[in-house]
Amino acid sequence: MTDAASIAVTGLYRALVDALPDMIAVISKDAKIVFVNDAWERFGRENGSPNLVGARVGDDYLRADRDDAVDNPSPAQRARRGIADVLNGARDHFALEYPCDSPNHKRWFRLQVFPIPGTADFNAVVHHEITEYERLRGALRKQQPLDEISSDGSRVPTVDLAPRQRQVLELVAKGFSNREIAFTMGITTKTVDYHLRTLKTKLGKHRRAELVRASLARDVS
Fold first, then answer.
1. Mean pLDDT of the residues in the chain
2. In CATH, what number is assigned to the domain containing residue 210?
3. Residue pair 109/129 in contact by the 8 Å Cβ criterion
4. pLDDT, tens digit (0-9, with 9 covering 90-100), for 15-63
5. Which of 134, 201, 147, 205 has the alpha carbon at shortest distance from 173?
6. Is 221 among the domain residues?
7. Which of 37, 76, 81, 205 has the most beta carbons within 10 angstroms of its beta carbon?
8. Total domains in the fold of the chain
């Protein structure tokens, strides 16, 4: 690839990442931020740069409050520990859902941290907003606490699900593809297929959309 073509491709990658709604940063193994996209910078400007989101290029991403509470760690502390584990190779992926309220309304985000394929020293930090998912799940919980209502109006007892099955069901409800579920959980796509078949059998559902509805109506977190 010529230098001109390489520059053009780099610019295209930057434009693509900037077009995404998720807040994305790249951090080095020593936790220094080397890149942030437009959504990240915009969130920082609009929300006063809270600890978990909005830090700038050159900052230490793990510079947040160093209070290492054990019994009841804050989301910021849990995030810092999980990110540190990814940076030092103790785990290959970290994910955390956390509240990040604005002055006007409640918000929820899902944090994911993982090594960038093809590089030895850089990791991606992605914050994806899941507020609408949490609102819908909360509303359905109030109407149908731990079970569902059948077509004739009677209650259907909650089906016991294994932890892995509950996690797959939750990720399906969040719109993850089978490949994304496999990556997030550290399993193969064949294993994801197996869990989905088991879920459909246990819950009496036949389509993916029905699994989403079942997930939102249950406490699967």
1. 76
2. 3.40.50.2300
3. yes
4. 888 888 899 999 999 999 999 999 988 887 777 654 444 478 888 888 7
5. 134
6. no
7. 37
8. 2
